[in-house]
Specification:
Number of domains: 3
Structural class: mainly alpha
Oligomer: single chain
Length: 707
């Protein structure tokens, strides 16, 4: 069974297609499920948008204040329902009689109590709390339901509480019964017999509220509502709010919802396709790497998700979302143009769910530009804080300007957005941790990591200097050459510098085989067959890759190690073989580096700098002519061998690089002034016109200062 290779071009295209399809689906899911009303308005402020007319008939809904007032008025007629317990009266009389024991209750007392209790409990007794609640709610009447479901309405004020019932009985008692009545402790026996029927009462209240109309008129289709510049009055506000409610309720049928979803899919697909085209046309290195494509898509998806969840589940402003995270993080890993383009795509997508889309787009464009402009290369933690301050300042300035244009009065400016701007800028400080996380997940390399890797005091660099001191010094010189050239042709100088420091670490495995580490001693390669000697030299590339992977170096640095010789030949041993054995056809694979060829400006610069620096050490004399000829010969030879055919180096770039190399090598090997020797020691009779030892010393000091 044939094994599927996911790294093949076909499967890479399939993976990227799935990434884009999943991104489109997830973003559409994050969009609101109902039509989104695109206008933002407030009472007393001018209308910022175009003329609005009603595209369909809709009712004008009453505002909350008006509805509450009408409900309170209607609820004055509300009658709560109570159920009455008719057995309590007889139960109380039985308890009174039973407590008398041997002392029988006087007949006239028994008649009096029976009559009073029957009268009171027929009218109804409420608990004190319920009675107070009726008074508080200004309830005039209550409906009493007996056990036969007969309903009788009575005044709430006519109902008793246990306390008022006791007072009524005492006040009604004849004088001759007062003494015995007080001994009965009647106040402890009286209890309520009316219980609120919550279900029936709630139904009655709901019917009253439901009878209140929620609307107060209609707006006809085609009717003018408001035009740009007009002040939003309370009446206009009610109409606009009613339009918003009606607009959001229009996606009630399956057919309408399907049309909305189709529109969203088309919209999101368009923006994702624009992102794909940008990467394919202008950033093929990113486009050809599925991990990098996934990273960019996830960053866009993250911004849309944060905005959607903030609006859906919180009452916070959308500006609390740190949208500048996207351009900052992408800029750290890639370039300013890619960061700004991805930020524009995410901004356009979020604008369709933002409350005030025009204002949102203007502000986000400003902070995106501020982010990529203030963070050219993130090599220090302080740079992130400075960028956050620039973004906060951009937010504030743009918001003030936008408010002055739309309002025309700075006194009408709201100050709460500035708090959201500050919080959003503060959240940007978490980018440092996210950068580290994305590096590990997607195999990316940030400027911070490159700065850490250029530390020559690291354990690996110290061991490199100890084991292969000549190669280490060579790497430092190559690093200086390549860095200067990178600055001149607008390449990533920090990346070149780091790659150059590590390009020859494979020589640590067998340092004695390389002439820069032999210090003029015997060369063991001379004892080996030419093919074997060539393989030993070539092996420093594969050895370097193994060491780099073991030490956890990023893939971008390993790329420098694998490409710094490309697919060139070990010409010393190859030419020697051809000259020594003219009748034999050499196996060129034994004399050729495995490659691959350089594919970027940075790796091409390293190849040129490595070859030029190594060749410069073997020059017989260091004159301007010999250095110029050497640089031209080495680089032109590499071009002729097709070493740079996969890079985007221009002819102008090559000429600039040559000029930088020539200048740097001349400075490295400049001639020094030969100090004169004293042929005869001066004596006391030395004439004044002859140089003395003191004069010679002064001349030497002056020469050294001039140098």
């Amino acid at each position: 069974m044939k094994k599927i290779r996911l790294d093949s071009a076909f499967w890479q295209h399939i993976i990227k297609t799935l990434i884009f399809i999943c991104a489109i689906g997830l973003i559409v899911q994050l969009f609101p499920t109902t039509n989104h009303f695109k206008y933002h308005f407030e009472i007393g402020k001018p209308w910022r948008y175009e003329l609005v007319t009603a595209s369909f008939d809709f009712p004008i809904y009453k505002d909350k204040e008006q509805l509450t007032k009408e409900q309170n008025e209607a609820l004055r007629e509300y009658t709560p329902y109570f159920t009455i317990d008719t057995t309590i009266c007889s139960n109380i009389m039985q308890e009174i009689i039973s407590k008398q024991g041997k002392r029988s209750l006087r007949p006239d007392m028994e008649r009096f109590l029976s009559e009073q209790l029957r009268k009171i409990y027929t009218q109804g007794v409420l608990s004190v709390d319920m009675h107070d609640l009726l008074l508080k709610d200004n309830i005039a009447n209550v409906a009493i339901v007996d056990n036969k479901r007969h309903v009788a309405t009575t005044e709430a004020a006519a109902l008793y509480t246990p306390k008022t019932a006791y007072e009524t009985i005492n006040q009604s008692a004849p004088q001759h019964l007062a003494g015995q009545l007080s001994s009965l402790n009647l106040n402890r026996l009286l209890e309520p017999n009316l219980t609120l029927d919550t279900v029936t009462s709630a139904i009655a209240k709901k019917e009253i509220i439901d009878d209140i109309s929620l609307t107060s008129g209609m707006v006809q289709s085609g009717e003018r509502i408001i035009d740009r510049g007009e002040i939003v009055t309370p009446e206009t506000y009610r109409i606009l709010n009613s339009l918003r409610i009606a607009y959001e309720e229009r996606t009630t049928t399956i057919h309408q919802s399907a049309q909305v979803i189709i529109g969203e899919v088309i919209l999101v697909t368009l923006f994702i396709v624009l992102q794909i085209l940008y990467l394919h046309l202008f950033r093929p290195r990113i486009f050809n790497n599925s991990k990098h494509v996934l990273f960019l898509v996830l960053m866009i998806l993250l911004m849309v998700a944060l905005a959607s969840l903030t609006l859906k589940y919180t009452s916070l402003s959308i500006y609390i979302v740190p949208f500048a995270l996207l351009p900052i993080i992408i800029r750290v890993f890639f370039d300013s143009r890619t960061a700004l383009f991805a930020h524009m795509i995410s901004t356009m997508l979020v604008s369709f769910i933002a409350p005030s889309p025009f204002e949102f787009i203007i502000l986000q464009m400003a902070i995106g530009m501020a982010a990529v402009s203030s963070l050219k290369e993130m090599t220090q933690r302080s740079q992130l804080a400075q960028t956050a301050l620039w973004i906060f300042a951009s937010y504030c300035v743009m918001y003030v300007a936008f408010t002055l244009i739309s309002e025309g009065d700075i006194s009408k400016m709201e100050w709460l957005p500035f708090v959201y701007f500050a919080l959003s800028s503060l959240f940007l400080l978490f980018a440092y941790g996210l950068i580290y996380l994305f590096e590990k997940i997607f195999g990316l390399t940030s400027s911070i990591t490159l700065v850490e890797l250029t530390n020559v005091n690291s354990d690996l660099m110290i061991r490199f200097a100890e084991v292969a001191p000549g190669t280490f010094q060579h790497s430092l010189q190559v690093s200086n050459l390549a860095t200067e050239a990178a600055k001149k042709i607008n390449a990533n100088s920090l990346l070149v510098r780091t790659g150059a420091l590590y390009h020859d670490i494979g020589k640590m495995e067998h340092p004695q085989y390389f002439i820069e580490n032999q210090q003029g001693g015997h060369n063991p390669l001379n004892d080996l067959p030419l093919e074997e000697a060539a393989q030993v030299v070539i092996a420093h590339v594969t050895d370097g890759i193994k060491i780099a992977k073991k030490k956890g170096l990023p893939d971008t640095i390993i790329n420098f190690i694998s490409t710094h010789h490309g697919k060139s030949k070990v010409k010393y041993f190859y030419n020697t073989f051809v000259n020594r054995y003219p009748d034999r056809v050499p196996d060129e694979s034994l004399f050729t580096y495995p490659g691959p060829l350089p594919s970027t400006k940075e790796t091409a610069l390293l190849m040129m700098a490595d070859a030029v620096e190594a060749r410069s050490r073997s020059l017989d004399e260091y004159t301007e002519e010999s250095i110029n000829q050497m640089v031209e010969s080495m680089i032109n030879g590499q071009i002729a061998d097709g070493m740079f055919k996969e890079t985007n180096l221009s002819f102008r770039d090559v000429e600039v690089v040559k000029a930088v190399f020539k200048s740097k090598i001349k400075n490295m090997y400049h001639h020094r002034i030969a100090y004169p020797e004293i042929k005869k020691a001066p004596t006391a009779e030395t004439p004044a016109d002859k140089p003395t030892e003191e004069n010679n010393q002064k001349q030497e000091d002056t020469t050294e200062q001039a140098e």
